[in-house]
Amino acid sequence: MEKLLDNIIQTNRKYVEEGEVASYIPELKKGNKNDLGVYVTTLNGEEFSAGDYETRFTIQSISKVISLIIAIMDNGEDYVFSKVGVEHTADAFNSITNLETKNLHRPSNPMINAGAIAIVSLIKGREPDEVFERILNFTRKITGNDNININREAYISEKATGDRNRSLAYFMKSTGVITNDVEKVLDVYFKQCSMEVTCKDISRIGAFLANDGVIPLTGEKVIPRETARIVKAIMTTCGMYDASGEFAVNIGMPAKSGVGGGIMAVAPEKMGIGVVGPSLDKKGNSIAGIKVLADLSKELELSIF
Ligand code: DON
């Protein structure tokens, strides 16, 4: 397996040239375009890695999966999906038009920025600090890594330049999707996106979902199987944004990308996979990371379809 991963990384390294590191959040420009790494956590406790798997990066949109799980646990799925839809959108992850023209002002799904911000507003906690603390603790628990923390520079950078997200959030406040303090909700959202991880950490999140909400290493059941099922379905249809259809055809796994360069993928009942490759395509997905997952899916027959 390690040999296979090594080969896949080597074959696909050339693709890092075709993309660019995200620059709309200034701190992300520091990412190394040439990095490419992969980490696999199987459900029977085996772990394999190759390439630059030790690269640290901010979790970014992969955190949307975590806050969705917590929001469902806090409110039940019916309430959550009365506020945020579950329909795929062909628009970009930070699209504004979509919010006004579709779904009676409800964001289309929890994976685009508007939907994710609305989801954060549903998480219970007295103060924003407590809400974020819950997200951080949950992330530490399912990754088995108590050292996960926010990257303060990334957080400050995103908060200082997050006006697109601010406009999405204020718009949703005007339509009643968000009912609490917009700046406080955004602060939690910026913090959750700034959690710093490695592909080992995200492979563990994938393994936890592959195992229907039970942490493979400890056997602890953290969420109902039904919640894991819903989250995987939404990842399959919306996790790679407006590239989700192509990803389903070529790779066929529930997955979630982030502009830090990470992709978390789930091979149900088999393994969780984390890849990192900060060189992104125009849709904000890791360009070489997708190639790595495509090869891995083919070699190990991981497509769910
Ligand atoms: O809100 C943002 O724009 C970023 N914190 C996260 C966006 C993101 O990761 C999109 N992913 N590919």
From TrEMBL:
One of its GO terms (molecular function) is glutaminase activity. It comes from the Bacteria. Substrate binds at S61, N113, E158, N165, Y189, Y241, V259. It holds the Pfam family Glutaminase. GO terms for biological process: glutamate biosynthetic process; L-glutamine catabolic process. SUPFAM superfamilies: beta-lactamase/transpeptidase-like. Keywords: Acetylation, Hydrolase. It is an enzyme of class 3 (hydrolase). Its EC number is 3.5.1.2. It catalyses: L-glutamine + H2O = L-glutamate + NH4(+). Homotetramer. Belongs to the glutaminase family. This is Glutaminase. It comes from Clostridium liquoris. The lineage of its organism: Bacteria, Bacillati, Bacillota, Clostridia, Eubacteriales.
